[in-house]
Amino acid sequence: xxxxxxxxxxxxxxxxxxxxxxxxxxxxxxxxxxxxxxxxxxxxxxxxxxxxxxxxxxxxxxxxxxxxxxxxxxxxxxxxxxxxxxxxxxxxxxxxxxxxxxxxxxxxxxxxxxxxxxxxxxxxxxxxxxxxxxxxxxxxxxxxxxxxxxxxxxxxxxxxxxxxxxxxxxxxxxxxxxxxxxxxxxxxxxxxxxxxxxxxxxxxxxxxxxxxxxxxxxxxxxxxxxxxxxxxxxxxxxxxxxxxxxxxxxxxxxxxxxxxxxxxxxxxxxxxxxxxxxxxxxxxxxxxxxxxxxxxxxxxxxxxxxxxxxxxxxxxxxxxxxxxxxxxxxxxxxxxxxxxxxxxxxxxxxxxxxxxxxxxxxxxxxxxxxxxxxxxxxxxxxxxxxxxxxxxxxxxxxxxxxxxxxxxxxxxxxxxxxxxxxxxxxxxxxxxxxxxxxxxxxxxxxxxxxxxxxxxxxxxxxxxxxxxxxxxxxxxxxxxxxxxxxxxxxxxxxxx
Length: 496
Ligand code: ADP
What we know:
By secondary structure, the chain is an alpha/beta fold.
């Protein structure tokens, strides 16, 4: 049987998952790695930790499955997006730690871009809104602040890239310096319509274009495994044939292949992506547009919104309030009451993102009475996640992107009570797949399609199994209006 290995390089851990041609998971391995917080609001990773954890997971998963090198048709990579690495072209050594997507140190560089009047150009060219989240200002910061880096970059001695590029470079023994269009889309340097790096944005940030990886289709050639990778010597020559950022990979893994199909991942935060087909709309409500993937010469775009705090509100009930001992208990308690008793919980712990965009908003519980119980609060926290998702779906609809079904994944999608309410508040079916490893699956599918393991996306879709479909049963539009009132009350609270 042919197999495909997916490398899922996440923010807190690296994983490798081996899929069979029937899309079943054959083996998996996972390693957490060090988070580095040098200053408040700064977040770094050691690029060597990223690499070594990924390589050892791959070796472990392959070993566990007991497959021989000729059984592995291809490798697919999916990764934490935006995190930026710069390394020496000759020695392969990083010039400093990777700057992680969460890191806010480059906010002043973003302000500089805004002051230069670049915001509209950035939105038009890249589909993004100027923010420290994206790679561009992280790369500019390294050039401006790490001694000697600018001179070396200008001499062409350095390579830069997101985590996918760093992995591809190392897995191929320094032969391939490439990225895929979905990862390139999150740098804030990439023209998502022309599919090339944008000279004006690079010039505005004084980024030499020779630093940048070659952008390539997400399903296609990314080189082959080098012959000296520790623990993987026997697998030299296995081709890397797929690459996509984590969220577009999970959109692909959920088989959202057609325009209008969408998925929401319920983790610490939520990431909602909708396939917009071959058109790349620009949002009026602060949603982001990126290339989701390019496959068989066809570019597919996605519109994206995120909720900063979703599952983290359940963690907060557990760890800070001690109201529950586990997320499952939150579900059980929420099921004991028919509604929240008019309590609304807005988990704006770190402000609100699209479509509200208020970084001064803070977490709020309204409607508390002497009769409010912890069951009501648990239910309000779960419903709050569903309402925030509905706010994103509404914003997408205002941008002309309507949904007829939502596919769900991520740890908190296991909550039946929340998924039932999600269907009610959206008024559309919510589909939870049996396969929970959607991100890794997406990377495996992109690689396997290129390697001929699967003929086309229809063949993959036919293998997709649904765990459960939640249908809308109750009209909760009056409650949704109350939610919007609660959101207004959470806004503009933090001291400036
Ligand atoms: P991440 O990848 O962001 O770390 P996961 O996909 O592993 O997140 O999901 C973990 C999150 O989901 C946690 O914030 C947790 O509180 C929440 N969660 C997990 N199970 C449940 C559940 N049954 N009900 C509600 N929330 C849950």
